[in-house]
Structure formats: C-alpha cells, structure tokens
Amino acid sequence: MTKVHQSWQSRVPGKIHGIANYYTDLDGMQHVIVATSDGSLHEMHWNQTGKVSAPTIFQRFDKLTSLAGLYAPDENFQHVFATTGEGNLFDVFFNRSQSLQTRTLLTQLPAAGKNIGMAGFYSSNDKICHAIVLSKEGKLYDVTFSKRQIPVVNEFPIQFDLQNIASLAGFFPHVMAIFMTSTIRFKRYFPILLG
After folding, report:
1. Taking the model in full, what pTM does it have?
2. Residue 143 and residue 94 in contact, taking contact as beta carbons nearer than 8 Å
3. Cis ω on the peptide bond leading into residue 73 (within 30° of 0)?
4. Neighbour tally for 7: CB within 10 Å
5. 16-24 and 29-36 as β-strands: parallel, antiparallel, unpaired?
6. Taking CA atoms, which of 46, 146, 152, 167 is between 20 and 30 Å from 132?
7. Residues paired with residue 83 on neighbouring β-strands, in sequence order
8. Cβ contacts of 41 within 8 Å, gap of 6 or more
9. What pLDDT digit, counting tens, does each position of 7-22 carry?
10. Is 59 exposed, middle or buried (CB count within 10 Å of its CB: 0-12, 13-18, 19+)?
C-alpha cells in the first residue's frame, strides 16, 4: 500500500466546482487551483518542507464550466485555463515576478460541458501548451499555443459519447477519458493525429 508522506486540510468559501493541479519545478512548489460555484478561482501551494498557503482568490469568471492548469518551464509561467458557458476559453497566466494576466484564447469554441472537465499539459518535446476541452456535444478539442505560436484549435479524430464520460484528465503524452461505466480510456497523445 502506498504511504502518504504529507496530508493537509484547507477550506475555501462556497461549494467546490472543480480543481486543477500542477507542479512548478522552478521553485519546487505543488499548486492546487480550486474553483467554487460562484466562479472564483482560489490558489494554494506548498513544497515538501513548508506548510500549505492560505487559499487566495486570484480570478473570477461568470458561468465557469471547467478548468485545468499547467506550468510551462520554457517561459516560467503558470497557466490556468477556464471555460465559460458562452464557449470562451481563457488563459490566466502568471509567475513570481510578473503580475496576473488574462487573455481569451478562443471565443468560437463550443461551450464546455459542465463538470465534465478539461485537461492541460505542457509537451516538453515541442514546448507547446495544450488545453484539452470537451464540448457539450461531446467533441474533444486540443487548443495549442506557446510563446512563439498563436492558439490553434484541433479536433481529435477519435470522439466519445458525452453521455458516458464522467471526467477528463491528461499529462504529457497522454489524455484520459474516464467513463461512467468505471472504464478508463488511456490514449497516447500524438499531435500528428490531430487536424
């Protein structure tokens, strides 16, 4: 059985809508982003020697549907992706030396399915950030960008039945879809398959 080396508990005000997490190797911190039902995004962080920071609200979105996060080591930025009911995909990005910035990556994306989720990961081989978004219609999209590339939207060639998907997760080079039937589909991510 796996031993838990560190446990902690914290509270955020309101009902939790979703979470995202990532690790920043620049400072060795674990980060958890908690979205509450009012659309607020709270950030907490810790490392193996310190205690957990108090939850800090850093952004709020009306009609928040899902979120994901990642760390891009080539630019030393943390990225938190948020989708809204109107189909907007936002990128909230920051690092320790620069203040919080928000940009709309794409406004024409079909609205994300509520509580289905999205995944975010950084592909180290090509230094590209990925936001994997599942629409209300069950279509899976990969929105890619970098500091050198404007956002590009690709539709996955293999689609899933939205009725059966419970959640979505990902880490380079994999995307996972978890189904209501307790089945986990684990797909190796190959950019050549997209588009």
Report:
1. 0.80
2. no
3. no
4. 5
5. antiparallel
6. 46
7. 66, 89
8. 33, 34, 35, 57, 58, 59, 60, 61, 67, 80, 82, 92
9. 556 778 888 888 888 8
10. buried
